[in-house]
Amino acid sequence: MSVLEALALDAGYRSDSPVVRGIDLAVEPGEIVALLGPNGAGKTTLLETFAGLLPRLDGRVVVDGVAVRSGDPRAAVRGGLVLVPDDRALFRGLSCEKNLRLAVGSARRSEGRARLDQALEWFPALAKRMKVDAGQVSGGEQQMLAISRALLQQPKALLIDELSMGLAPVIVESILPVLRSVAREQGTAMILVEQHVRLALEAADRAVVLVHGSIAFECSATELAADLPRLERAYLGESAAV
Ligand SMILES: Nc1ncnc2c1ncn2[C@@H]1O[C@H](COP(=O)(O)OP(=O)(O)OP(=O)(O)O)[C@@H](O)[C@H]1O
């Protein structure tokens, strides 16, 4: 059974003119999908609709066999769907440690400690930053914190918008293997929206290309990585850092 499914999904900001139309997409356990496409194609709109931040205009979203209520972000999280938005949504003014603790929620103290340790195993660079305000750490550390917060919620499906925005490729390359191993070990389904197509395809199993709000093209990440110029010419225009 797919972890995350969209069925005939229309999304956007006005019911008379959807930004995204007729999306049918299924992400399997442990699968990473790179969602690619030019600026304005509707990638963020689609992720925000999955996460309930935008009400659906039509269609269904199903997580682990259970339909997710439209426009209800708490229901989406309860259902196991967690979004890391492009602004990373950290609690600035609180330490990195407090940010992580809030993600662990009401877990018992010993279990909470173990889960915090897990975050530091994923991202050892955070260890010396735990007492520092989340707003004061580097962009890479903020992204590590945001992803740790999301993973500590033990999502069934994880959506990450603009993973590499503002980050050096070397930082992104330290984050992607963590996502790969969590997907493999925990069966988490993931969708990555990523401008750096090459990096995205290294981490992903499958690529889905969104153009003008519809899925234009879909294939294995390896197949697409072998033919990037075609992808660039056909779909991405000049904005993508292929
Ligand atoms: N709050 C909003 N209200 C109305 N229209 C919006 C809003 N946010 C985005 N749009 C429009 O929806 C369309 C899709 O935007 P979206 O941000 O989803 O694309 P994207 O593929 O994520 O692009 P980018 O790579 O630039 O982030 C664009 O035409 C955009 O102008």
UniProtKB/TrEMBL annotation:
UniProt key word Cytoplasm: no
PROSITE patterns the UniProt entry points to: ABC_TRANSPORTER_1 (PS00211), ABC_TRANSPORTER_2 (PS50893)
One Gene Ontology term of the molecular function aspect: ATP binding
SMART domains registered for this protein in UniProt: AAA
Keywords: Amino-acid transport, ATP-binding, Nucleotide-binding, Transport
Stored SUPFAM superfamilies: P-loop containing nucleoside triphosphate hydrolases
Residue ranges of every copy of the ABC transporter domain listed in the record: 4-237
CDD domains, sorted: ABC_TM1139_LivF_branched (cd03224)
Family stated for the protein in its record: Belongs to the ABC transporter superfamily.
PANTHER family hit by this protein: HIGH-AFFINITY BRANCHED-CHAIN AMINO ACID TRANSPORT ATP-BINDING PROTEIN LIVF
Name of the protein in question: ABC transporter ATP-binding protein
Species in which this protein is naturally found: Gordonia liuliyuniae
